[in-house]
Specification:
The chain is mainly beta. The protein has no helices and ten strands. InterPro entries: FN3_dom (IPR003961), FN3_sf (IPR036116), Ig-like_fold (IPR013783).
Length: 129
């Protein structure tokens, strides 16, 4: 989009000298994914972990969903196979039948602009009974 401004710069006996300035206006649409949710622990009973999350800032688009990753504490996030998807109106979950171990749990928020950074990481230990 261009905007042109004409200005009368000087008038002489032979006519008017005009100057013009052309302003370039660019439109940058920045893509802002949502902020990560904040994850909290409700309770751990036997081999069941109950947790909740609070969504963060939506970014440039409404949050369309969340996903949760969990792994054994000594494993790498790069090889996470346990991924659970949730809709945008869900804010709590229960992970059942977990083997005794220490787990790291984190979440992400998604919108049409992308995926958030990882949330805080919960460290939960399920003990052998």
């Amino acid at each position: 989009m261009q905007t042109t401004t004409l200005t009368k710069a000087h008038t002489t006996s032979t006519g008017t000298i005009s100057t013009s300035t052309v302003w370039e206006q660019s439109t940058h649409l920045t893509t802002v994914p949502p902020d990560p949710p904040v994850v909290g622990l409700k309770e751990v009973i036997d081999n069941t972990i109950s947790l909740f999350w609070t969504p963060g800032f939506e970014g440039n688009s409404p949050i369309t969903g969340f996903y949760l990753e969990y792994k054994a504490a000594n494993a790498s996030w790069d090889y996470t196979k346990a991924i659970v998807d949730f809709s945008s109106n869900e804010t709590d979950a229960t992970i059942i039948e977990i083997n005794p171990s220490t787990y790291n749990i984190r979440m992400f928020a998604k919108n049409s602009m992308g995926t958030s950074k990882a949330s805080n990481v919960l460290i939960v230990t399920i003990k052998d009974r």
